[in-house]
Amino acid sequence: MFLRPAFAAALALLPATAIAQVAKPAAIVADGIPAIPDALAADTQPYLQARKASFLGWNPADRSMLIKTRFANTDQVHKVRAPNADRTQLSFEDEPILMAAISPGAGDVTVVQKDVGGGEFYQLFRLADGRLQLLTDGKSRNWFGAWSPDGKLLGYSSTRRNGADADLYVIDPRDPKSDRLVATVKGGGWNIADFSADGAKALVVNRMSINRADLYELDLKTGKLRPLNDVKREVSYIAPRYAPDGGIWVLSDIDSDFVRLGRLDPRTGRFTPVSKEPKWDVSDYALAPDGSFLAYATNEAGVSRLHVLDAATGATRDVTGLPAGVIPYSIGSAIEIAPWGTIGLSMSSARVAGDAFAVDPKTLAVTRWTASETGGLDPAKNVEPQLVEVKSFDGETVTGFLYRPDPARFPGKRPLIINIHGGPEGQTRPDFLGSDNYYLNELGIALFFPNVRGSSGFGKRFVNLDNGPFKREDSVKDIGAFLDALVKDPALDPARFAVTGVSYGGYMCYATATHYSPRLKGANCYVAISNFVTFLENTQSYRRDLRRVEYGDERDPRQLAKLIEISPLTSVDKIDLPLLIATGGNDPRVPASEADQIIKAVRGKGGTVWHLLAENDGHVFRKKENEDYYFWTSALFWKQTLLGDAQR
Fold first, then answer.
1. What is the largest CA-CA distance in the chain?
2. Measured in whole angstroms, how far is the alpha carbon of residue 154 from the centre of its chain?
3. In the chain, what percentage of residues exceed pLDDT 70?
4. Are 335 and 356 in contact (CB under 8 A)?
5. Averaged pLDDT, 414-440
6. Which of 114, 127, 326, 465 could form a disulfide with 453 if both were Cys (CB 3.0 to 4.6 A apart)?
7. Is the pLDDT at 13 greater than 70, yes or no?
8. pLDDT score of 19
9. What's the rounded Cα separation, in Å, for the pair 191 and 642?
10. Residue ranges of E strands in 237-394
């Protein structure tokens, strides 16, 4: 391995003593990274100031909306009293708030979920008068489940018993001493999803993988769990809700390649689909408190489409007034219907940074409640993506979204960054690009976001095509197919391609560098798996079995051998390009040791690695100062690897 001459020359042009430097955040360790020029920070500043508003729910007490947004360093809870009203901040923490939920009924209690330093050992708190009162044990991992219909009980899961199993608890947040263990379970994927109207029972989901989630009814007095589906079948049940007539609404992929909305008979376990879209997953839904109608979203080639379903007749109407974008993931439901009937949700798109909207269920009229700032830039000028379809090595069709710079401003063949999503069951969707718009609008770098096999949103057949160690590298071959197609694009420069990815996409970043190094100029791998065996051994115990289902079981000798074979660390001698590696010091999913071992190996063979470590953050950075410094480091890396001296 060696340092490519062009990259070395670019480094030589940037002596640290000659540059006005950006101050490094105290928790950032920058190893082998040049100084960040003040000029770069100034140039990118508007692109780093976009914020988004995430809908969290309705307040039944005053009909206000609860949202999450950032005004300082982290996301905090805010209230919006009416459409386009001021955002009133309610929480004031140094650490980001992951979620918040207001109690049904009186709306007198707000509960939030928060961790420390990105460690993901989440705690539940009661939020009142700007202060948090701890409800859980302060040590284990706790996850919000659901409110009882009267708002008197909160159900949640916790690993406090042994650090691995997500047992089921209930609490009245008004009295922390009321906390009660209801049922002990085996596995880290359990949680309470809904309560019966009388508060005597609860619906419980045990999620074991994207393909398997079983449904149970829990007797809150005895702790007995009764299975509601055939637990011998590999089927997924998602977000069950009690209907007023005693039936159960739920999402499921039973007897279908796609997830459908339907009803489950709690006596027989029979699922009857109600949504009629034959091709697309139903991604989210909400049931009106009186049970009269539902609002549900379909994921159509990555775009969220909202529909309103009459529960009595099955008639469906399409909501057309929302942006053609994405309803983002949310703990619980991303959609909530207020007691007075209004539908609330968030939407984002290439030209909407992320805002909260309301829909009138009768007229389907859409009202935008927030207008999040975008750093003074006009989001209407952002580039819309082009859908790209290619045939992979085995004839499987794989797709992705290509964003092209303005050819009038940036004529000629343009460099390209391939950005691979995590998961691995994630999905690239036409969402707001945020700071990445800087690459398109100011540097003229094209961006491509692939959905390789194993991505969700294309049916369970497709999502299972990469399962286990023996199919794992088929998804890497999909990147090879995209490279073959994109080098033929007359507007792209095949001599200036690069790759990046986060989490599992970080593994794909490393793997792409090992398989296709001669075709790339650089790789930026973020919180990435470098060795599947050490990853499985060191990831937190509550999630280890969930990951074994997807990647393989290192305890099986045959699978162990294959996991070692396909790990990027095993083929580190094939990496012949500069690397930027970013790591969270408190990452519970992909520990920092995954970065340490590949950095040592690459540098030991004479390779170049920039390493950025955020000691106070976890799996992806959630503190703005860390996010910004990583972005500046990435921009500098791409300028040197893809643009060289010309900077254009």
1. 75
2. 25
3. 96
4. no
5. 93
6. 465
7. no
8. 55
9. 46
10. 237-242, 248-252, 260-264, 271-273, 281-287, 293-300, 303-310, 316-319, 336-337, 343-349, 352-359, 366-368, 386-391
CB 609 within 8 A of CB 583: no
Q: Beta-strand (E) ranges in 2-72?
A: 28-31, 54-58, 65-70
* pLDDT at site 15: 46
State the Cα angle at 473 between 469 and 475, rounded to 5°.
Answer: 120
Q: Rounded CA gap, 237 and 254, in Å? A: 8
Residues 567 and 514: their CA atoms lie apart, in Å, by: 10
What gap in Å lies between CA 440 and CA 384, rounded to an integer? 11
Q: Point out which residues pair with 113 in neighbouring strands.
A: 99, 124
* pLDDT above 70 for 453: yes
CA angle 414, 416, 420 (to 5 degrees): 165
Which two structure tokens, joined as six digits, stand for 616?
A: 């106070």
- Mean pLDDT of the region 423-430: 88
∠ Cα 562 564 567 (to 5°):
105
Write out pLDDT tens, residues 588-622.
Answer: 899 999 999 999 999 999 999 999 999 999 888 98
Q: What is the DSSP letter of 442?
A: I
- Cα Rg, the chain, nearest whole Å: 24
Q: Does position 214 have pLDDT exceeding 80, yes or no?
A: yes
Give phi and psi for 482, each to the nearest 5.
Answer: -65, -40
pTM: 0.90
DSSP 135: -
- Once rounded to an integer, what is the mean pLDDT over residues 91-107? 95
Q: What is the DSSP string of 41-56?
A: HHHHGGGG-B---EEE
Q: How far is CA 587 from CA 115, 505, 617, 631, in A?
A: 12, 16, 7, 19
Say how far apart CA 642 and CA 632 lie, in whole Å.
15
Look-up: residue for tokens 């920058």? 30
Range in 158-167, 440-449, 546-555 the model is least confident about? 546-555
- C-beta of residue 626 within 8 angstroms of C-beta of residue 28: yes
DSSP code for 241:
E
Cis before 25 (ω within 30): no
CA 362 – CA 342 distance, rounded (Å): 9
What is d(CA 279, CA 276) in angstroms, rounded to the nearest whole number?
A: 9
